[in-house]
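Kindly review both lines to help learners:
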Amino acid sequence: MPFRGRKCYNAAFKLKVIAAAQATNNCAAARQFNVDEKNVRDWRKSEETLRRMPRRKCALRGGAPAWPQLEVAVAEWVVTQRQTGHPVTRNKIKRQALEWATRNPRLCHGFTATSSWCSRFMERMGLVEKNEEEEPSTEADPSHQGPSTSWRTP
């Protein structure tokens, strides 16, 4: 097979290839969509993740957390707070993370609860802020207060 160079494929394309591979087989789907069979095998393994990600996104970038125990503990705290009806802000998340880090200094050496850490943490744990779709006539409606947001939990 001639060298094709590197090419990025978005999640929607990968899901089409997966559907074709499930209908026939990996090799036939690879030929049909002109991709490498190894890509088809990899995409089938990560099908569930591909279904959850935005259709236009190409890669699953993002590293592993440096303090996994801290993140699990803080994520559990966020879920319990939300289940009891308490609002959870980014500042509360950062404060809770710092408290946990001071109680467990061996596990969290060098940890600082920055805003960027909080954003990445929320993305990794599926606690991100999600804007709901706005209606097209929001500018004409004077009672409209801006986009509504909801928080999704894993």
Observations:
- The longest strand covers residues 129-131.
- The longest helix spans residues 68-83.
- Helices lie at 11-23, 26-33, 37-45, 47-52, 68-83, 90-103, 115-124.
- DSSP finds seven helices and two strands in the chain.
